Structure formats: C-alpha cells, structure tokens
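At your convenience, could you comment on the folded chain following this short note?
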Amino acid sequence: MTESSTRDIRTDSETNIIQVISVASSPHLKNLSLSSRKMMIDVMIALLPVMGMAIYMFKWLVVKQLIIAVGSTLSAEAVFTKMRRKSFSLPDGSAGVTGLILGLSIPVIAPWYVGVIGSVVAIGIGKVIFGGLGMNIFNPAMVGRAFVMIAFTGVMAAAGYENKHIAVDAISMATPLDAFKQSGFVTPLRDLFFGFTNGSPGEISALACVSGGVYLCLRRTAAWEIPLGVILSASVMGLFSDMIHPDVPFTFLHHLAGGSLLFGAFFIATDPVTSPISKKGRFLFGMGIGFILMMLRFFSGYPEGVMFAVLFMNAVTPLINRWTIPKTLGT
C-alpha cells in the first residue's frame, strides 16, 4: 500500500481475519444523528410560532411573501447548482430555510420583485459564490436583505400597514423603533411581547422568537452561547442607557422585545457555518452582535441594526476562531 493510504490492513495468521485500522485524520468521532437536513428541519419547526404570529397579524400578505422568497431561493439553488455541474442539493433544506428567514425579514408590503431579487442574491452571492453549503462566510439571508435594503431603500423603509388587531390610534403605523425615533411614541411592552404591533413578520413577537429559539437550543441545533451573548450585551448597554437617561420611557426591555434583536439572536446569528467554533468564541461573537446593534440604535439614524451587526461579526469570525483556539492537552 502507498504512504497516502488512509487505512492500515493487518492479517491475523491464526484466525485469518483481516483487521482494518483507520488512520485517517481527525475527527474520529461522529454524531450520526445530526445532519444538515435534520438541522434545517429543526429550524423550520422552530420558525412555526414566528410564522403563526406573523400570519395572524398580516394574513395573506405574509403568506405571499414567504411563498415568493422560498420559491425564489429554491429556484436559484437549482439553477446555480446546475450551472456549477454539482449534485442536486435542494433536499438538504438550506435554501428553504434561507428563503423563510429572508421572507420573514422583509416588510409584508414590499413588492414581489424585492423578495425575488433578495433570494437570488442570497443564494448566488451569499452562498454559491463561496462554494456552496458550508463554505460561505456571511449569512446568506442577511446578504440578500442587505442588497435589497440598499437597492430599494424607499420600499424597505415603508412599513405602514392597516391592521385591525393593532391597538394604536394611527391607521398606518411605523415599527416600534421607528415610532420612538420619529415621534417618541413608546409601544407597550405587552404588544411587543405577544406581537400586536407592526414590523417585519419575523420580529413582531418576542414570545414567538423565544419559544422557537429555546427549542433550537434544547435540540442543540443552535449554540446557546450566541443568543446569550447577544441578549446579555444588549441588556447591559440598555441598562446603562436607562441609568444615564432615566426620563426616557423606552427602556432596555423595549430594546430586547422590539425590533429583530431576538429573531436575529436565535435564528440568524446562530448559523453554524458563519459563527465561531469554540464556546468562548460563540459567546464573544454574540456579545459583539449585541454591542454593535445597540450602538447603531443609539447613535445612527437607522433604528435597527441586526443585519449589519451579524454581517460585521461574520467577517470577524475567522479572527475569533484564531483568538479562541483551545489549548492542546498537556500544554
């Protein structure tokens, strides 16, 4: 056998049994219960409470948006896979999850072409251009959303929607963070917690996001260190702001429950491909997202910052992996 062989075959002369000893490189232990497809199914199950609340609030508008986004991501995946002459990759479910997250991140009143373009960019530039599943360095859904946010700023900023379930005097209302920045209106915490407010479909209900996120963490599909870091960092900065400005009614609890902080912490930042490997690295990754998010909310004209925070920390992930390399046993 050649030196490059990965197996050492030895014969026992007495029993005449061939023993195959694996000398391949690590890892030698594999968890066969985990696979890309099973992880994506877990994410889809965890998104059910979020989608349920979104459909309750926005009815057929969010259904249409999800169908457009998921259909476009699946179609783009099939086309790009064929162009690259690779094996069919749709059954792993990654393109479907990207479509769901992107669809839940886009305002329900956005025109159909926004979802289509965002989906094609998410798969093509956010995933395929890096080599496909497991090779991308940025979260594909956030790449797609960032593109349409820049290309269709006016459409993406228009969040008003008439809804009889929203107990607010205005017929057409802004998102909670927009409303506070523009007019000082503070959405009640009860509405933020249950989801009786306006915004992108995935961010309206804190309860739905936490319910699905806890399921992902219990299933170990998502690393709990990341959402913990996001929530802890955002809470510390929010409490510090409350102490400096005690007269401001928009507290750290409003920051946690409002906007896409929880949706991003549990469903976007926890992408295993674009997040650090070690537990310490994941916690630092989450802390960084929470810090950047709150800095953008406090000091920028843009009321939300999860997308930018996640993409920035995705870029820093290789450095975090290098900084948090575990010590070798015995050193």
